[in-house]
Amino acid sequence: TLDQDTNLNLPVIVSLVYCESSVLDHAAIEDFGWRANHLLAKMLNIEEDVSKNIITLLEDENTIPFIARYRQELTGNMDADKLREAKECYEDIVTLKHKAESMLKLISKKGQLTPQLESTITLACTLEELDLIVSTTQ
Question: Which phi and psi (to 5°) does residue 94 adopt?
Answer without folding.
Answer: -65, -45
